[in-house]
Amino acid sequence: MPLDYYDDDEDKASAGKGARKDFDCPECSANNPTDDALKDGQEVMCNYCGCSFLVKATDDGRFKFREI
């Protein structure tokens, strides 16, 4: 795994509880709700600091975020 990916640890707690419809910004830690469930290859933007990230799904259903 590249070092520039942020591992969203909250995915551990929500695994198996349905689709994720929010993410914590790796830069400012703000929680960002989303209209649709997160998916691999999606681009998301923090509503608070404005940073953009590429979502990557892992084989175990967790998400990683890379700043773009």
The SSE string, one letter per element, is EHEEEEE
In whole angstroms, the N-to-C terminal distance is 16 Å
The total strand number stands at: 6
Counting DSSP H or I runs of 4 or more residues, the number of helices is 1
Helical proportion, percent range: under 10%
Please tell me how large the radius of gyration is.
11 Å
Low-confidence stretches: 11-16
Mean pLDDT score:
84
The CATH C-level name is Mainly Beta
Shape: globular
Number of domains: 1
Q: Give the strand content.
A: 25-35%
Structure characteristics:
mainly beta, Rubrerythrin, domain 2, 68 residues, single chain, 1 helix, RPABC4/Spt4
What can you see in these coordinates?
The chain has a single domain (5-67), classed as Rubrerythrin, domain 2 (Single Sheet), CATH 2.20.28. 7% of the residues lie in helices and 34% in strands. It has one helix at 10-14, and strands at 5-7, 22-24, 31-33, 43-45, 52-57, 63-67. The strands form two sheets. A four-stranded antiparallel sheet has the order 1-6-5-4, with no helix packed on it. The protein is globular and about 30 Å long. The model is unreliable at 11-16 (pLDDT under 50). Residues 1-20 are annotated as: Disordered. Residues 1-11 have a biased composition (Acidic residues).
The gist of it:
The chain is mainly beta and 68 residues long. It is 7% helix and 34% strand.
Secondary structure: elements and pairs:
Layout: E1 5-7, H1 10-14, E2 22-24, E3 31-33, E4 43-45, E5 52-57, E6 63-67
Antiparallel strand pairs: 1-6, 2-3, 4-5, 5-6
